[in-house]
Amino acid sequence: MTASRSAQYETIVIRPRKGLAPLDLKLLWQFRDLLFAFADRDIRLRYRQTALGAAWVILQPLLGASIFAIVFGVIAKMPSDGTPYFLISYTGFLGWSLFQGVISRVTPSLVANASLIRKVFFPRLLVPLGVIPSVVLDFVVSLLVLVVLMVIYRITPNWGLALVPLAILILLGLALGFGLAATSLAVRFRDVQHVAPFAVSLFMYASPVGYAVAAVPEHLRHLYLLLNPMAAPIDVIRWAFLGTEQPQFAYLATSALAAVLSVVVGLLVFHSAEREFADVI
C-alpha cells in the first residue's frame, strides 16, 4: 500500500540551464500571459502618479529637441541645408529616446521585481521583456507628433520610410542587449542601475542626435560610423522623414550586425547569472 501511494507522487526539480543552452522559446510561449500582464502593469503604472500624466510622452521629445535646436542650431550654427533645425533635433531625439528608454527601464527591472522573483517560478527573461511595450508605445506617440510637425512644416517623407522599421529594430536590439547585461549585473551590484542610464546619457553627445552625420568631418566620418552603431539607424530615420543627405547603407548593415551581437551577449550574460537571481536579489 505504501509503495503504491509513493508511486503516485512525482518530484520535479526546476533548474536553470547551464552553459550555452539555447533559449527556451517554448517555455516563454507558455508564460506569454505573464508577459502581457507585465507589459500592461508597466504601461498603467508609468503615469499614474505624475502631474503631467501621458502628456509627458509628448513634452519630453519636444523639450529635448528645442534645447538641441538652440544649442546646435542657434549657438553652434550647425548646417541644416534648409531643413528646420528643430526637426533635425526632433528626429534624432526620437531614435535616441527609444534606445535610452529601453536601457533605463530594463536595467532596474529585476531589482524592482525582487519579491516576485524570490517566491515564484517563471522565465526571468519575461521581466525585462515586459517593459519593452511601454517604451515602444512612447515611441509611437512621439512618431505621431513628428507626423503633425511635418504637416505643419510641409515636409514630405521619401521611400526611406521602408527602412525605418529596420532602423527601429536595430535600436531595440542594441538597447536590449545592453539592458539585459546591465540588469543582470544590477542584481549583485545595485549601483549599476544608476550608472548605466548616466553612462548612456553621456553617450548621447557622441551620437547624431542634435546634429546630422553630415556635420561630422569627412575624414572622420567612416571611423565615426563604425565605432558608433547608433549613428546609422538614427541617420536613416532622419533621412527617411526629412530628406536630408542620403546615408551610406553599408553602415546600417554594420549596425544590424552590432545589434545581433549585442542581443547574443546580453542573453549570455543574463543566462549565466540567472541561476543566482533568487538567492542574491
Helical/strand content category: mainly alpha
Cα separation of the termini: 44 Å
- Give the ordered list of helices and strands: HHHHHHHHHHHHHHH
Number of domains: 1
| Poorly predicted segments | none
What Rg is obtained from the alpha carbons, in whole angstroms? 22 Å
* Helical content band: 55-70%
What does this 3D model show about the protein?
The model has no long low-confidence stretch (mean pLDDT 85). This protein has 15 helices and no strands. The protein has one domain (23-44, 51-280). The longest helix has 25 residues, at 164-188. It is mostly helical.
Task: Please supply descriptive tags for the structure shown above.
15 helices, elongated, 281 residues, mainly alpha, single chain
Could you give a short description of this structure?
This protein has 281 residues and is mostly helical. Helix content is 69%, strand content 0%. It is elongated and about 75 Å long.
List the helices and strands and how they pair.
Layout (H helix, E strand, L loop, with lengths): L1 H5 L18 H6 L1 H15 L8 H21 L9 H22 L2 H4 L1 H6 L6 H4 L2 H22 L10 H25 L3 H12 L14 H10 L3 H12 L6 H25 L3 H4 L1
Helix pairs in contact: 4-5, 5-9, 5-10, 5-13, 10-13, 10-14, 13-14
